[in-house]
Amino acid sequence: MDSLLQKIYKDISPLIGQGKVADYIPALGAVDSNQFGIAICSNDGEIYTLGDAHKPFSIQSISKVFNLILALELKGEELWTRIGREPSGLPFNSIVQLEYEHGIPKNPFINAGALVVSDVNQSHFASPRIAVREFVKKLSGNPNIQIDKVVADSEFEHKARNASMAYLMQSYGNFNNDVESVLYSYFCNCAITMSCVDLAKAINFLANRGYSNIKKKQVLTKNQTRQVNSLLATSGMYDEAGSFAYKVGLPGKSGVGGGIIAIVPGQFSICVWSPALNDAGNSLAGGAALESMTKHIGWSIY
Amino acid sequence: MDSLLQKIYKDISPLIGQGKVADYIPALGAVDSNQFGIAICSNDGEIYTLGDAHKPFSIQSISKVFNLILALELKGEELWTRIGREPSGLPFNSIVQLEYEHGIPKNPFINAGALVVSDVNQSHFASPRIAVREFVKKLSGNPNIQIDKVVADSEFEHKARNASMAYLMQSYGNFNNDVESVLYSYFCNCAITMSCVDLAKAINFLANRGYSNIKKKQVLTKNQTRQVNSLLATSGMYDEAGSFAYKVGLPGKSGVGGGIIAIVPGQFSICVWSPALNDAGNSLAGGAALESMTKHIGWSIY
Amino acid sequence: MDSLLQKIYKDISPLIGQGKVADYIPALGAVDSNQFGIAICSNDGEIYTLGDAHKPFSIQSISKVFNLILALELKGEELWTRIGREPSGLPFNSIVQLEYEHGIPKNPFINAGALVVSDVNQSHFASPRIAVREFVKKLSGNPNIQIDKVVADSEFEHKARNASMAYLMQSYGNFNNDVESVLYSYFCNCAITMSCVDLAKAINFLANRGYSNIKKKQVLTKNQTRQVNSLLATSGMYDEAGSFAYKVGLPGKSGVGGGIIAIVPGQFSICVWSPALNDAGNSLAGGAALESMTKHIGWSIY
Amino acid sequence: MDSLLQKIYKDISPLIGQGKVADYIPALGAVDSNQFGIAICSNDGEIYTLGDAHKPFSIQSISKVFNLILALELKGEELWTRIGREPSGLPFNSIVQLEYEHGIPKNPFINAGALVVSDVNQSHFASPRIAVREFVKKLSGNPNIQIDKVVADSEFEHKARNASMAYLMQSYGNFNNDVESVLYSYFCNCAITMSCVDLAKAINFLANRGYSNIKKKQVLTKNQTRQVNSLLATSGMYDEAGSFAYKVGLPGKSGVGGGIIAIVPGQFSICVWSPALNDAGNSLAGGAALESMTKHIGWSIY
User: Fold this and answer.
1) For a 10 Å CB count at each end of chain A, is N or C smaller?
2) What pTM did the predictor assign?
3) Residues C29-85 pLDDT 10s
4) Nearest-CA neighbor of A30 among A21, A41, A18, A39?
């Protein structure tokens, strides 16, 4: 594994810093773009790292995965009456489709879908703003994981587009809680900071048929695990899901903080991080690292 | 395997005949809806069948897979300058997206994308109307495969919507040949009749890392094979691709004739057929059979 | 004139009560659908009435006309950098177009456009919630015009769709004030109650080259008056603007309370009211009355 | 009148040649952009001209007016089951709306609507390709009006987008004749060449309550005339209809050849011509000339 990581690094090091750090809020725009980390967590519990793998970063949309898993535990299949399971074919924050589909978002990984998932969790948890944080602490075995309040507050100040989507869904009867409260919970989830190591550990159960070696517990059934992985594979990378499947061939999820998680079912989980993004909003060097990895291991799910 | 087929049949036999046979052209509408066949072709060349597995049917959109493979052999990666690799999120014949994307179809399995693929093949083959038929004869080892001219001519008579898409792409500079000629070639491909056995054999190379045991030849490289499977997984089932991934978890492609092919990479290929369709235009009993199969084998790609 | 009103009434009396009273909020749904009133205010100041012409009703979207005139007085031509002057071709509350046009609404009479106008007025008036009410008191010469708080509060409770549009515009930088405050001002304007007589008097200046006989003052220049009338003619009747021009041929504006105002330039202003609406949300009997009127006077602007 | 024309010319002469001549076909692109003509035809038959008023040019979309009048004579109100009467709010050749509205174009002056009108005329006339030419010969009193075959053939070669729209309407059952034949008739109508004088005379009946002083005949009833004028006012200027109403305030129709006709009901008809177009595809100097005219006469329909 360590030699695999070296090969990957050799392939992609010229790309580190290429692309553009997300800057729609100042707290994200200030991140140094020349960072790169990678962590692998094997199903037998070994951790392999390279570069800035221990440095916490803003997980942003990767939180949608944990958010979804919490809601699936609560609602099971019933969740799919309020959200679709289809790729959207449009940018992550498109509002057109939401009107066309009468307030039912296409899948849980576009913003509108994640807001419905947050609305589901808001109805259930006593402290919805920290429910995801508490969940990832246990999944990763790291009790020190924090929400970056500066980021959360800054996202809330720039809430207009997400607020527009939430209100549109409310107008179609697909939003039950106060819009502003749900938005704040949602932004708190996005503002969680974790390292590559934290994330690789936290999602390892998705590579391990639902069983978490850290939590020592079955998080999802074997079947649910396959289902979540299928959603990641078809909808996890915004409007690059198809290209990511074509080039990398693994279930994955990216965030505008520059992190990407991916699953090698039956073998290991992986998290890469590099803050500069490509035009689709996915980490440029991170995506290249995963493409290099599947080339070197000669394996993808397809 | 034979006992697997029996278990599947037991699960889904109440569904046979449920749904609605495609009837936009008379030749398809006349098919008896109470038919069901299934054929598995293992990577070591064994064939397992049940029901009407030897009965030829109209392969319709399944032809898009063969059409694509021919064009990939001709053009390689250059093909993707004219077609995307992303799921569409909209019905297979939507024209909105085509205008929004300035004439570049989202993927090769929606109608617009298959028409561009046909246009590519039209530019190259001496007899474009029969190029796919000759290709599937060799892939399946069955020299008697035919084009149903009644179906092809009837589709051509009802060409209006496909003609509209082709002309729209031409208006954006993404169509090189005479629209009517390409449409007729395209309809001839859709009107090929094959049995479940023919199809399971013809696509086995996709389960076998690109090598065809029938043709005794590498059809695609190992890497290209993974790429085609990824496209099938993200875009093969129209606007049900996500649900199909969620429930079945295999690369697959359906046709309105009631056939569905699917790939279990490294193991076997499978074809099911039952003419009555669900609301999304996919075989109702066929989809259920594949869902039953992955449940019984306890395996999917995810 | 009185005989004209009698002829109109004879033509349309069978239609009174046909259609459906707006019921998206309870306060509007409770209105008796069998009411009909009509008032004409000639440019020399004469008032002609028939039926329930003195009964106050909820002016709803007719308030958009007064809202616009206030903003035009403040901003002049500069207003058109934030709103278009084109018919929308889509329902009054469509959000698709707003995304397509990057937050610039098509015209000031669709909801999104009226919200931008309200945002402009919110930035200027000390008491924006009552600015329009004070304006119409002076224009109509009736100091007793009220805002129905039950209606305003009920609209605010059902604000989701309008909130969605306002936030979407904010996300594009085309909304300056707090969304909730502007929405409440907007709903207060819609909840003004006026009678046919009040409205016919209040808008007479649009028939009288900008001069109000009631206020004894030039409200708009002659040229601005023509411009406002042109906007009413092309965009005043939601997605029925073209049909209304075809059948009636006058600048007009409707509200879901069942009122319609219309302008006969150089001659008189008119207001009809009947609460039951057609499918496009315009008063069914009211629209028929205006059609009857232009037939009897043998005159339209075209 | 002559002094009015002089004033207009003084106002707009700096604009002549500004903008861009249509160049999607070579025959139009070759026209000298520094030309300007204007002709007024009063209801008592007087002609007033300035500049290149006698020079024939390609009438292009202005032909849609004559095309519509022929179809209205044939079908009357029944025509509106196949075409709407609403402004489109989108560019003249948008295909999105056509899918959204299931093949019913918004109005007879966008391309899709004009194609349906052409389809209606195709079903009736023995020589549909010349029906409009014969009609305008009589209306203008000029027997020498020609179809420019070079232009018609060149348009036909570039037919892709119009073909796409026609086939889409056919797929919805709203197109009865062979697509290619109707397209050729349509392009022949667009390729008619007329001068400002020809056009001002030909449309004078629209200013004269339906009666043509040239043909000495009632072409449309008084009521139909008003209706056609209302359609011109709400939909005659593509997606600039609202701005044209706001600035000019007259029913009008433009063509990409640089001509614009306009109607002053009860008084006169006017045609301006200058080949260079603004971004919306309307003659830049021509639009300015009409705006100058209504300013000088202090009158518009609103």
Assistant:
1) N
2) 0.94
3) 999 999 999 999 999 999 999 999 999 999 999 999 999 999 999 999 999 999 999
4) A21
How many C-beta atoms surround the C-beta of residue C8 within 10 A?
A: 22
Q: Residue D3 and residue D191: Cα distance in Å, rounded?
A: 33
Chain A interface, best mutation among C94, C155, C164, C174, by max A CB count within 10 A? C164
Residue among C89, C242, C265 whose CB faces D302 most closely: C265
Dihedrals φ, ψ of B270, to 5°?
-145, 145
Residues 6+ apart with CB under 8 A from A245: A233, A234, A302, B85, B230, B231, B233, B234
Question: Is A162 marked as a binding-site residue?
Answer: yes
Phi-psi label, residue A83: left if phi above 0, alpha if psi -120 to 50, beta otherwise: beta
- Do B168 and D161 lie within an 8 Å CB cutoff? yes
- State pLDDT tens for residues B170-205: 999 999 999 999 999 999 999 999 999 999 999 999
In b/e form, how buried is each residue of D152-164, taking b as 16+ CB within 10 angstroms?
A: bebbbeebbbbbb
Within 8 A by CB and 6+ apart from B213, the residues are B43, B44, B45, B204, B205
Q: In this structure, what token pair is assigned to residue C160?
A: 């989701």
In A144-221, which residue ranges form alpha helices assigned H by DSSP?
149-157, 160-171, 179-190, 196-202, 204-207
Phi, psi of B42 (to 5 degrees): -75, 160
SS3 content of chain B, % helix, strand, coil (to 5): 50, 15, 35
Q: Chain C contact for D224, CB < 8 A?
A: no
For B100-118, the pLDDT digits (tens) are 889 999 999 999 999 999 9
Read off the pLDDT of residues B149-166 as tens digits, 9 standing for 90 and up.
999 999 999 999 999 999
Q: How far is CA B293 from CA B8, B262, C88, in A?
A: 6, 11, 51
- Residue D302 forms part of a structural domain: no
Six-digit token pair at B129? Answer: 């109307």
Q: What is the distance between the alpha carbons of residues B226 and B229, in angstroms, rounded to a whole number?
A: 5
Query: Residue A217, Cβ neighbours under 10 Å: how many?
Result: 12
CATH of the domain at A12: 3.40.710.10
Q: Distance between alpha carbon B47 and the CA centroid of its chain, in Å?
A: 20
Burial tier of C37 (Cβ tally within 10 Å: 0-12, 13-18, 19+): buried
Question: Any binding-site annotation on A238?
Answer: yes
Give the residue from D97, D119, D159, D164 with the most B CB atoms within 10 Å of its CB, the best one to mutate: D164
Q: Is residue B235 part of a domain?
A: yes
Chain B hits for A242, CB-CB cut-off 8 Å, are 84-87, 107, 230-231, 234-235
Q: What distance separates the 2 farthest-apart alpha carbons in chain D?
A: 54
Q: C143, exposed or middle or buried, with CB in 10 Å at 0-12, 13-18, 19+?
A: exposed
- The structural domain count of chain D equals 1
Cα(C145)–Cα(C56) distance, rounded to whole angstroms? 9
Whether residue A302 lies inside any domain: the answer is no
* Residue D149 CB-density burial (10 A; 0-12 exposed, 13-18 middle, 19+ buried): exposed
C170:A160 CB<8 A: yes
Asked, for residue B72, whether it belongs to a domain, the answer is yes
Contact of C167 with chain A, judged by CB distance below 8 Å, is answered with yes
Structural domain range at position A71: 2-297
